[in-house]
Amino acid sequence: MESITLSTSTQHSILIVDDEIHNVKTFSAILNQDGYKTFTALNGQEGLDVLTNENIDLVLLDISMPVLDGFETLKTIRENKRTKELPVIFLTGNMRDAHSMEEGFLLGVNEYLIKPIEAPELVVRVRSLLRMSIAEKKLKQLQNDFISMLVHDLRGPLTAVNAFVQLLQDGEEYDDETRNEMLSMMGSSSNHMLDIINDILDLSKLESNYVTLNKTSTDICSVVLESIARLKPLATKKEIQIKIDFADKEIILPIDIQKIQQVVENLFANAVKFTGEKGTITVHIEIAETPSPALSVQTILLPAVIVSFADSGVGIAEDDIPLLFDKYRQV
After folding, report:
1. How far is the CA of 291 from the CAs of 247, 283, 285, 299, 300, in angstroms?
2. pLDDT of 304 strictly over 90
3. Mean predicted lDDT score pLDDT of the chain
């Protein structure tokens, strides 16, 4: 029997539901040899009982069975909150039955396998579906974490605004300087919330491919310098030294000024945040005429302009670097 090595060290549990005992034993032996843990049932009801008592990662489900057939079993699986996302592969001996295939997909089956099933095909289909299931779970978890992070980030400035409003409403008299300072902090908190909301809207536009660029021929060096100047007080508070290293004093490009400003300010603010007192941030701009480690030659045409930020802060863990551009990821 040909063996295909699992790509993950985690032992997954597979439930095999088929009224033919020979099929159950054969499929179980194939999957056991490849490192999977298997549970078996001879009809749909037995299969549902196993799902109630065991943590199953994937179900191989025959369609034609006594007591409870595959369709009714799948319907029950999808109606159960605990198992509704469980990957299910239908096993069928009739490859021409388009009606039953359509019914299966409407009920939420993930795959069909036609009997007789070769061992390599069974293992590859199971492995592929498990990988997809794991990826979907990770994405959902990332989305949940991302939403939690946004709620946390919005709660802070919103709490501050609410506190100052209550102070101003409590009837106590404040001198002009104190009152102006409170209003200034309320404005700062409101702007911070607005920035977060704009980031969410930008993400939504990016995901729907709705972003439009308003390009103007502009000196990118000036745009970068102006963006840094707006946030320079953040660095001054921590006595951070800003080093400007531009290979050219002026580089005219067709760019969307607002988008470039947004990226530069995000990068600079992040550098300030993770750089300690009296640290250093270096901003570098150059025209790359030849392949550079900072560019992917396969995706970026040369010549290209590289704008980079380097700081003396804690840096990014090497294991986190591949995750930087994952959706909803914060390292």
Report:
1. 17, 20, 15, 12, 10
2. no
3. 85
∠ CA 214-215-219, rounded to 5°? 135
Report whether 302 contacts 286 (CB < 8 A).
no
- Residue 176 phi, psi (nearest 5): -60, -40
pLDDT tens digits, residue range 220-246?
999 999 999 888 888 888 999 999 999
**Tokens encoding 62:** 């025959």
How open is the CA angle 175-179-184, to the nearest 5 degrees? 150
pLDDT in tens, 56-81: 999 999 998 988 999 999 999 999 99
52: its two tokens:
């109630």
| Structure-token pair, residue 287 | 């025209």
Residue percentage of the chain with pLDDT more than 90: 41
The angle that helices 119-169 and 176-207 make with each other, rounded to 10 degrees, is 160
The answer to whether the beta carbons of residues 276 and 238 sit under 8 Å apart is yes
Residue 246: beta bridge partners? 285
pLDDT at 6 over 80: no
